[in-house]
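Minutes, project check-in
Item: structure for the 77-residue chain
Input as provided by the requester:
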Amino acid sequence: MTDINEKICSYITKNWLIPWLQEGKSQTSFAKIHGVEESTIRKIKSEKTYRIPVETLFKICETRKLSLSDFFKLINE
């Protein structure tokens, strides 16, 4: 069974952060736009054991106009 935190972080990294970076934007700008610290984005991207706080996930989803329930539907598709 995949750890839920790993699944969340993997989804954010693969579907939102990597495309952002591929557009030539910075990790710092991703963090700023989403209302979180750049160090948090580094943890999401690279720490397999990072336990993402609900508040952080909420901020990221809110910026993307996505409810938490819709986010969890996406990661379970």
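Outcome recorded: The chain has five helices and no strands.
No further action items on this chain.
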